[in-house]
Amino acid sequence: MNTLFIVLTLLIPIFLLLTKGRRSPKRVPPGSLGIPIVGHSLHLLRAMRANTAEKWLQQRIQKYGPISKLSLFGKPTVFIHGKYANKFVFTSDSSTLSNSQPQSVKELLGDRCLLELSGQDHKRVRDALGLFLKPESLKSYVGKMDEEVRMHIATHWEGKQEVKVLPLMKTLTFNIICALLFGIERGARREKLVDWFQEMIEGMWSIPINLPFTRYNRSLQASASIRNMMKHLIGEKRRELAKKGVNPHKDLISSMLSTRDENNREVIDENEIMDNVMLVMAAGHDTSSVLITFLVRILANDPSIYAAILKEQEQIAQSKQKGELLTWDDLAKMKYSWRAAQETLSMVSPIFGGFRKAVKDIEYDGYLIPKGWQIFWVTNMTHMDSSVFPESSKFDPARFNNQASIPPYCFIPFGGGPRICPGYEFARIETLITIHHLVTQFTWKLLADNFFKRDPMPVPTEGLPIQIMPKTNITS
């Protein structure tokens, strides 16, 4: 009993110190901030891993209404949802909301990446990324991406009876990123990078307590290793660009190094290049691999969708000479395939949600969001809202036949407005080229159940193992 008394005597002042100042101002949204530091983080992460996070949030809505407070990843947070909430998040300027990610994301990716920048800094870096990622620039990379996909299929699919789709799609998208965005050739350096990257990505959404043997600690170490490699790579690119005749836009790093202002000064410094390389690596790797994986899952479950995509892709394949690479014009003909991909994104968004930070006290929906608090929004809250998308649980690519009919700020897998992801077109090209080769070369069936969890990206059971059967009438 004396030992318990001593422990409580020591802990109570610490608890009071941690909770000092946590009393909510008047008129803040209803809800509880929970216990210090941890708050509701473990509840959310546990629900995500059980694929019940949207249900968990719906229960909050039923209990507290459309806006409520909680604590996530060490910060007081306000959860908002719906199309007006999405518009508020994506259109508010930097005097109202700033980009702000959980501490774990900030530490791993860096505080100068696009997710953390606001105002003119955000525009400056976004414009520099956009020079490489805009459709006009990406047209010339379609053939190179097609080559990467063909090489991947020849290495990992041909001659196999069973494959696990998600790990292979992660391998594919990482190789595409290394080749097209960073100019890293196949070999030991790329293999080291992928190992470190997988270690880093596991701690993206975690409680930021840096203790040995924790997921967060391992991720920080992996991030430091990647940064060291990227620093050397940036130096190599800089030396290459000093030579005459080198293409300044042959990869993303070279393009950012070559971007100059009217006084011929670099627009982005080395730290910003490094942080945004880390961001592009994380965003481009996981989002595209998840989209392609779940589209493969849909095609296994719905023969009519598979048949419609196959018909479209076979027409394109039959118009090509054997071995001829796909072109930008070919991608423009893949309209139904992309609508099916959009519907996949609607039902299983790779990005669960995101955060902003209140720059000042904000009046929103009759409540006060205090300065410095996080604002948390969730992608699927409008995607699966039947008042926005009728029969939202039914897989129906036709709902994207007329893009103008979709209410603004309701379909947001890539964000919206001025905050839309600059890598949107890159992901579209990756997805369409990959699906073209898969459906024209293979049929498949699932070998595991349809369950998936979020960690924090959607992860299907056992990585989605499938049995594959090659086709014999391949024309491309």
Automatic annotation (TrEMBL):
Superkingdom in the source lineage: Eukaryota
Molecular function terms, GO-annotated: heme binding; iron ion binding; monooxygenase activity; oxidoreductase activity, acting on paired donors, with incorporation or reduction of molecular oxygen
Keyword hit for Transmembrane: yes
Species of provenance: Populus deltoides (Eastern poplar)
Protein name (Swiss-Prot/TrEMBL): Cytochrome P450
SUPFAM superfamilies referenced in this protein's UniProt entry, alphabetically: Cytochrome P450
Cofactor: heme
GO terms of biological process kind: sterol metabolic process
Lineage of producing organism: Eukaryota, Viridiplantae, Streptophyta, Embryophyta, Tracheophyta
Membrane topology according to the record: Single-pass membrane protein
Similarity field: Belongs to the cytochrome P450 family.
Segment forming the signal sequence: 1-21
PANTHER family with a match to the protein in the record: CYTOCHROME P450, CYTOCHROME P450 26
